[in-house]
């Protein structure tokens, strides 16, 4: 069922500083004026967990002649809805501000440390650059897959505990299982540590945003700038943790398999029996 023109909001204005909400409804057929409704938001201290309605904080104009004034319950519901819309609008504005701040940061970084070596309009050199880039990516991938063997001999601590250098097949099998079990636990502990840092950083960002909402009207320009600077740093750290966690999860399987392959061909576990 279509709304009446006098109930269908055409424009809404959130006067943040004045703590007012101004609504203008659509023109009804044959009317030269439109209904309006103004609200003065109650102080934060009076809102609490549940919004209270004071008829003295609202006024309006009814374009329809002879129509009954709106019921207080309807006005209360309208005010509650507009406060939610205001909060959502503020949230979207802050997100855009954060995006703009991130664009500015990236722009400054690109200006300070330019990475463009070959012009994108130089087709021949640019093809060679792409080829070299793909080769470097492949080399990095192969290095990550081999880093278990290259960086650490995970078997050394287990071999050091043995008094007899001659290892039976049963002992060799146990060493493999112990080493793989401990490595799996190490991967799990690292993932949990990054996850805990991610959750703590998320909670910190939410706390900062809640604090900002509560003290928005009392902040100076400098305090607000510091807030957004700290918030952007926290979001950047959160993004870094997310990338670390994703990379760790992507590499855990290949690392575990690489260690298993390494242990299956380790001379200390295969030459003595």
Automatic annotation (TrEMBL):
Q: Where is the Dynein regulatory complex subunit 7 MORN domain?
A: 2-119
Question: Which segments does the entry list as coiled coil?
Answer: 76-151
Give a yes or no for keyword Cytoplasm in this entry.
yes
Keywords for the protein's UniProt record, in alphabetical order? Coiled coil, Cytoplasm, Cytoskeleton
According to its record, what are the GO cellular component terms?
A: cytoskeleton; motile cilium
What GO biological process terms are annotated to this protein in UniProt?
Answer: flagellated sperm motility
Outline the extent of the Dynein regulatory complex subunit 7 C-terminal domain.
Answer: 167-271
Query: Chief location of this protein?
Result: cytoplasm
InterPro entries hit by this protein: DRC7/lobo, DRC7_C, MORN_DRC7
Q: Which domain of life is it from?
A: Eukaryota
Places the protein is found: Cytoplasm, Cytoskeleton
- Sorted alphabetically, which PANTHER family does this protein's record hold? DYNEIN REGULATORY COMPLEX SUBUNIT 7
What's the protein here called?
Answer: Uncharacterized protein
